[in-house]
Write a structure and sequence with these properties.
Layout: H1 3-28, H2 31-47, H3 58-115, H4 118-128, H5 134-141, H6 145-162, H7 167-173
Helix pairs in contact: 1-2, 1-3, 2-3, 3-6, 4-6, 5-6
Length: about 180
C-alpha cells in the first residue's frame, strides 16, 4: 500500500466523520449505532479501495453509503423487534398454558390426596410438604418406622395411579413419586 493512499484516506475520514455521524444519527437516533455505521462505511471503502471507482464526489458517495447502511440497520432492527414481539407473545401464551397446567395439577393432586386414607395422607404430607424424615414422622405420630414406610409406599402407589396423566409434571414437583 502506498503511503499516499493512506494519507488521502485518513484526511477523508477526519474531514467527513463528524458530519456523516450527525447524518446517521438523524436517521437512527442512536449515537453508538451512528458511529458504527460511519465506521463500517469507511471500512468498506478501505477494503475495496483497489477495485472501486467512484463516479461522483467522495463526499456524495460517503453520504449515500451512510444512508444505505442506516436503512439496512433500521430494517434489521425492525425484523429484530418483530421477532422479539412474537417471542414475547409466545412466551406469555406458553406461560398462561403452564399456569393452567399447574392449576390443574394442583387441583388433581389435592383431589388425589383427599382420596388417600387419613394416616397415609398425614404421613405423605409430613414427608413431602413438611420435609420430615421417616423417623421424625414416626416419633411425631407415635408409630413405628415400618408403619411410616408402609403408609408412604401405599400413598405413593395410590398417587401414582390417581395422577398417571400428570406423572411427568409430578416428577419435577415430588421426586420419587
Amino acid at each position: 500500500m502506498r503511503p499516499h493512499h493512506e494519507a488521502v484516506f485518513e484526511e477523508a475520514f477526519k474531514s467527513n466523520f463528524k458530519a456523516l455521524h450527525a447524518y446517521a444519527y438523524t436517521m437512527l437516533q442512536d449515537e453508538g449505532a451512528a458511529e458504527e455505521i460511519v465506521q463500517t462505511v469507511f471500512l468498506k471503502l478501505w477494503e475495496s479501495r483497489n477495485r472501486m471507482t467512484i463516479h461522483t464526489s467522495l463526499r456524495a458517495y460517503l453520504y449515500r453509503s451512510v444512508y444505505h447502511e442506516s436503512l439496512n440497520y433500521l430494517k434489521h432492527k425492525k425484523v429484530q423487534r418483530k421477532y422479539m414481539e412474537e417471542a414475547m407473545i409466545e412466551h406469555k401464551r406458553q406461560q398462561a398454558m403452564d399456569d393452567e397446567s399447574d392449576k390443574e395439577l394442583q387441583r388433581q393432586l389435592q383431589q388425589a390426596l383427599r382420596r388417600l386414607p387419613e394416616k397415609c395422607r398425614t404421613v405423605f404430607q409430613l414427608s413431602r410438604f413438611e420435609e420430615l424424615k421417616y423417623q421424625e414422622i414416626a416419633d411425631e405420630l407415635g408409630i413405628s418406622l415400618k408403619t411410616v414406610e408402609a403408609h408412604m409406599a401405599k400413598a405413593l402407589r395410590l398417587l401414582r395411579l390417581g395422577l398417571a396423566d400428570f406423572l411427568p409434571l409430578l416428577i419435577v414437583l415430588l421426586p420419587i413419586l
